[in-house]
Structure formats: C-alpha cells, structure tokens
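[step 3/7] fold_predict: job queued, chain A
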Amino acid sequence: MVERFFNGSSSVSSTTVAEHSQGGCCITSDPIMLLSGPPSSGKTSLLFQYALNMAGHCQLPSQRYVVFICNCRRFETKPPFLSQGIDASSDILQRILIKYIDDYDDEGIKKYFASFHLLPHFPCAVIIDDFGDFFHDSNCQQRYSNSRGRDLAMIRILALCHSAITHANKTTTCQLLVSDTHLGDSPRHLFIYKRWISSIFTIQGEGDGSGSFLLEHSVHVTERVTRKRRARYSIALQYLILEEIINDVSSLRLKHSDN
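[step 4/7] structure written:
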C-alpha cells in the first residue's frame, strides 16, 4: 500500500506488518517492488521514509536494519527530506545502513548480491535508489560486445537480485525496493522490470502548479476489477508531506452485441 512510504499513519503497521513464521516481520506484499517517477518528484525521500518504516516495524533484533544502496555524490547533493514528526536523533536512523556505490558501477550491485547469502543476518529490506542510473550504455555495450549491453546487464543483475531475495525469504522476510526515473507515462525499461517485478508504484506530477504529486499502486482484484490506491503528497519546507489517500475501484466493461 502507498501508506508505507509516509509517516504517521496508524494503518501502516496494522495492514502491512505481521509476524513471519520464521521470525522477523512479514510485509503483506510482493518481495520485489519498483518505484518509478519523473525527475525531482521526491523518490529518494519516499524510499528513505520506507526504510524508516521497515526498520521501525521489524521485531527480530538481528534483522532490524535496512540496507540503502545509493550513489554518494547524488545522495549528498540531494539528500532525502524526512516526514514531519521524524526525530533526526532517533535510533531508528542508526538501523539504516548506507552503502555507497560509484557512478555507473553496476558491478558494485552485482558483488553485493552475489555474496548476499553469506550475510550472518539478512536485512528486512534492501533499497536501491536510481537503479537504472548505475548502468552506463557504453560500458555495458563494451562488456557484452552487444549494442543492447545495458539491457543485458540490467536483466542479469535483476535475476541475481531475485535469486538472493528468494533465498532470504526461505528463512525470514526480506524485501527489495528499487527506484528508477521515467520521462513519459510509464517506467523506462518496463519490459525488463515486469519480468522480475510484479508490484510497481508510479509517480505522476499534478501539473496544476500546486507542487503536488500522485503516488499510485494498482492491484488486480479479479480479471475485470482493478483497485487503485493513490497518495497525494508534496515536498515543502524541506519536509515530505502526505496530503491525502485516494481509493479507486475500476471495472472493465464488457461489450455486448445485439443479436
């Protein structure tokens, strides 16, 4: 649900967190998710608030941490904005382990997940900010001797991520959340992401000058019914602000011809 990207909703803990049979916390959603939105729409802030929620809800002491993978230069230039009410001195912030990876270093992500199974305790979540930006066209083309080297590199690393998260979920609960930037109506490389990721959150700008954005998550309830849940939010005064939650259920209308 979209609430988990924001702070201060009591419904978050009651609807998204439950006890896992092997210990830790169990988030009632897909283990791998994508957050996609236009530039400067607050994606990093949403990811960081998600990390805070995960770190705060996990009950197993050994798993009460989140790994946040990002580029050092971009993270320090544009740090995330916290939600109102978050204490900057809270010990929950200490449970978010920042792992910096250099520009265009998709091999850094590959090395981390290749040794993921060796961790003594799995994190409750791994979050990768601007996943697609770690893949450089010319570097990937040269490595794979293929004009579509970037696509191949993304496919191989997503497959590795999927394998690592699946392995972790055999004994506990571990999520992977990645973000990417889209310039049109849908995530770039959507055909690649859909192979490994079934839960996609998209951000759309309002375009009304208010500075608000819509975070949307669609769930197919039946073949003909789709439930959409949206969150309207804004970035103001260096805070991530949730304005409202919007529910929408749409049905596919079947056409009947007269005989």
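[step 5/7] annotate
Confidence is low (pLDDT under 50) at residues 9-24, 252-259.
Residues 2-203 form a domain with the Rossmann fold fold (CATH 3.40.50.300).
exit 0
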